[in-house]
Amino acid sequence: MKKILFLAISAGFLFTACKSDDDDVYASVVGVWKPSREMAVSGKNGSTIYNDPSSSCYKKSTFDFKSNNTMVSNIFDDGMSGNCENLGTDTSSYSYDPLNKQIVIDGEASEVLKLTNNEMHIVSDYSDEDGDGIDDKIVLVLTR
């Protein structure tokens, strides 16, 4: 009886210990994602320079990554008038390489810093945000 209890507890620890790692390995880009925030990550030391929430208007945007390698985006933005405007829907091709953590959308490659079942961090640009002469990563954080 003690052996069975020990095996059950050990198995529980194994599954619990591996769960977060498995989320990263088996997470899929397929599905509908919404912008959550934008971050800047230091190119010098990896620290966070800023971590700003997306505007309430931009949060209405969606990025629907389909299993047939097309992405349908519907973008909202605070236009010149200051009103939240639907900028329209666009369909693009995409591919995702989980080994190299790279997503290519309409031929433009971007680094994926993090992908779990609930969150994806995509490097959208490089810019020297902190003025140290080294480009920093501008990261778009998407959530499901």
TrEMBL record:
InterPro entries: Lipocalin-like. Residues 30-121 form the Lipocalin-like domain. This is Lipocalin family protein. It comes from Chryseobacterium gambrini.
